[in-house]
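Retro notes
What went well: the complex prediction finally ran end to end.
Inputs used:
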Amino acid sequence: MLLGESRIVDALRQAAKDSPADETLLAVQRGGQTTLRFANGRIHQNLHEEDLTVWVKVACAGRAGVATTSSLRQESLAKAVESAMAIARLSGKHIVPAFHTAPHTHPTPKVTTYFPATVHRPLTEIVQMIRRLWDLAKKKGTDLAGSSVIGENELAVVGSRGLVQYQPFSIGGLRLVATQEGTSGFAAQAFRDIEALDEKALLARALDFCRKNRDPKSIRLGRYPVLLEPEAVAELVEWLAYIGFGAKQLVERTSFMTGRIGEQIMGKLVSITDDGSDATGLAVPFDLEGVPKQQVALIKEGTAAGIVYDSHYAKLYHRQSTGHALPYDEFEGPIATNLFVAPGATPHAELLKKMDRGLWITRFHYVNGLLNTQEALMTGLTRDGTFLVEKGKVVGAVKNLRFTQSILKAFSNILAVSRERSLIADPAQGFSSAVTPALLIKGFTFTGQTK
Amino acid sequence: MNAKSSASLQETIKSLKRRGVDYADLRWVEEAHEELVVQNLQVQHVSLSTTEGVSIRVLYHGVWGHASSCRFDAEGLKHTADKAIEMAKAVALDSQAKVKFHPVHPVQAEYRTPLEVDPFQVEMQKKIDYLMWAAQVLKDHSHIRTATAMLEFYRTRKIFCSTDGSLIDQQIIESGGMLEATAVLANEVQRRSYPTANSSSLSQAGYEYVKGLDFVGQAARVRKEAVTLLRAKECPAGTSTVILMPDQLILQLHESCGHPVELDRALGLELSFAGGSFLTPDLLNKFRYGSKLVNITADATLPLGCGTFGYDDEGVPAQRVPIIRDGIFIEYLSSRESATQIGRASSGAMRADGWNAVPIVRMTNVSLEPGTGTLAELIRDTRKGILMATNKSWSIDDRRLNFQFGTEIAWEIKNGRLGQVLRNPLYTGITPEFWNSCSGVTGKGDWQLYGVPNCAKGEPVQIMHVGHGASPARFEKVQVGHYASR
């Protein structure tokens, strides 16, 4: 059950008022989440967790300090403020506090992120749903593993000069892996409103991929045209955000965007934005510094268009924060976490037909984008469905493949983008997502294959 | 946690017994994490994070229920216990197969990290001065764009009690840090790190560990190597003999041995997230995982290891378990429940990331046992090859067979001597083929232990601290290449 705006904000306001620091910023994330995991015909993990974290950032005489606690009690908050001040006193003059504790002049996006039906869904109903899915899968001779998540969160930020932000969130999600004789198929959905979740469609997708994935064959390694499903696209785009769309990576010159803003770095069919106010994704209207999220064009028709900032890097660049701060005890710098890849004009069903000979990839596994971040060179494997396509039709399954590929180059060779998009998110995390289409790419380099 | 609070935890366990649970355990956990980062001679970040809460796990009518909360006053404990039973009941109604797990001998025990200097008692200014001094040496070249020096310290206190009658009080202290230099010349960017890359290397020890890392002494080498890499030759592509240094070999162990020997993975319980394992139970005691030189041990009793403890999170004593002996796969990392499923005893590897997480099978300290000889001898014995050091990137398939690793730096080996520096090296292979190609593991004198603080597994994702040790080892006919754009 939600603690509610007044209970959380009042506690933070009191702590900010009592704080002897020049400026005090407090952020709270609290939530309750139920996770069921199932495999081998039984629910093997059955967890309800209630969590609360308070981050405190203070500024004293031009110095800053950070502390956290897991309680909203005034004595705990006061202790955290005291710890942050002790750190600030010792931090030297090198940290320049850049955060704001007064209300922001630009408005916070109004977006509905809490749906009571999601969090009030009875646990017994979820258990029965899993049982129904098992039974349906069994009729097809298939085993089913997966997880179900439902939860709620509250995010609040209070500053000593009057800043107040509060937003409740709900989340529901289901992941399914259908398995049969060593082959598998995957499908997943996550939404703020559980009513949008279509478990039967998910099961059908997982079963279909599992059926198609039977008897996978080896193929010659090399360069192939590929059709990437939205799950696969999302993983690549999230890595692009991690290695390249944040101000810290530009400062350190490790980003593929460094010195290239305004240049064409991908094909014209690619546009990527970050937008925390768009409820098509898992919207989050402000960051942990309380800054309203701005819509940021990252890649505009293939051109490097912009990056995201938190208060610290905004000050360094003489810009405004775009509302992309991480928790205060992190130092990864700002990260774009509400990603959208623009849709194309081609119906998804037509994309496969456009392939003369190539590979259809349902998802990737264990992608690593740290190989050469300036080129966005990444490696990873295909998983739960890799199919050989000839003359627009699936002709067989292929063993999981390893790619080693510059994503800048791959995204410079996009032939078509699907009209439809999917919301891809980890429901257990709940604050980040990517809304992505399927992509038909002219060439993708495969350098290894599983046994 | 005072005596009164400890009594309330035990009272909660007693009340669960009265309510008819088959089994219950409770963990109260308090954690503190201090982190200090100096970048380009500025204090970039200093924080102290604390968190405290309780986790209750019940087996009710043969079904697990688990709940956790940061409220642990009497009312909070009752609420969490009720929730755990409610979770189990909801599944028990569906009459699924009942959980079986073997009993353990109840203990009243205490474990404390042996240490010389409590890092939380060391003045923060002293820590910042140490980082500043190292960062100054690290930054001292015009090509060094970013010089980062970092320290971090963890203190975890946990009290475990169960209906078995166990009461275990543990306090674990970890210390660690890292240096990282990023060199830039035109469009070329290269990085060197110490002692490991991408995160701190941790040790279950006090402040003496980070002083022993000698950041100031190491910084000049790290800086020099980063600058050298800017103009180095690309690592050649092809098939080669490769010597891996311990700071790369630990990731190889982690991904291609540590994860596939987790029994929950092998039994299919991680299929929806991390994946399965090629090391299925039918392969126990007969599968040749590596050459006869390959001996891998999971040792939760190893001094200084990040995977060291007194008891795991279901009350099983820490153990030293051979996993691969003379190249043969002989044991799993397991829990009381998973081990029962294959007719074995738990190897004591059930651990949870904090108070709000459910324990799952995790690595302890999974290490390659030392062989014989020295690194100098191994290089002398190699006519042509490549020596690779310090992990940069990592990737492996969902059954842990096809892997690819990149390292920060490599050196050519020609006629038994180290030659020029090579940049952007990577190597790839198939797990058992790779370990079966092992043609040399050097001795105890070269063996090094590292703590890896970022092992991800489970849903919701849990981040675990694990340990790995290794001596340099040589592998034959390895496919190597470089990070050139494709």
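What we learned: DSSP finds ten helices and 24 strands in chain B.
What to try next: split runs per interface for comparison.
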